[in-house]
């Protein structure tokens, strides 16, 4: 579903009839399944972990890359993002490195939010990336 919304959102500034029809199909689908959602497990593990990935030169027209990340609090997903970047990366390692930056900012923001809510978070946050080249840049 998120991928479909991501693609449709690229045409929101100048939608054509086909985009409007596809958007209505998404709304009808969501209306038909109100019980669907994300299950948040009741556990005491308040460890923040972030996972990131990017798809280098995934847009064949612009050669921009798509980055994505998801953050878990314990075993429950609490934040996720997918974005087509506005810059072109010369390598897949740089694209992955930039996606690590996105999830790091999200982790820092969520840690501050948890602290503001009075939730102590003493363990180091985890950051996971599948690119050895990008990890080497750290």
Automatic annotation (TrEMBL):
CDD domains: RNase_HI_RT_Ty1. It comes from Lithospermum erythrorhizon. Keywords: Membrane, Receptor, Transmembrane. This is Transmembrane signal receptor. It comes from the Eukaryota.
């Amino acid at each position: 579903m998120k991928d479909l919304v991501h693609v449709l959102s690229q045409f929101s500034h100048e939608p054509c009839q086909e985009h409007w029809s596809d958007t209505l199909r998404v709304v009808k689908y969501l209306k038909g399944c109100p019980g669907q959602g994300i299950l948040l497990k009741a556990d005491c593990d308040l460890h923040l972990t972030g996972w990131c990935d990017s798809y280098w030169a995934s847009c064949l027209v612009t050669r921009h890359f798509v980055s994505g990340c998801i953050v878990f609090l314990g075993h429950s997903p609490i934040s996720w993002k997918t974005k087509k970047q506005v810059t072109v990366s010369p390598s897949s390692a740089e694209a992955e490195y930039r996606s690590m930056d996105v999830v790091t900012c999200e982790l820092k923001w969520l840690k501050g939010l948890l602290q503001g809510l009075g939730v102590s978070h003493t363990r180091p946050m985890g950051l996971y990336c599948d690119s050895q080249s990008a990890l080497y840049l750290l």
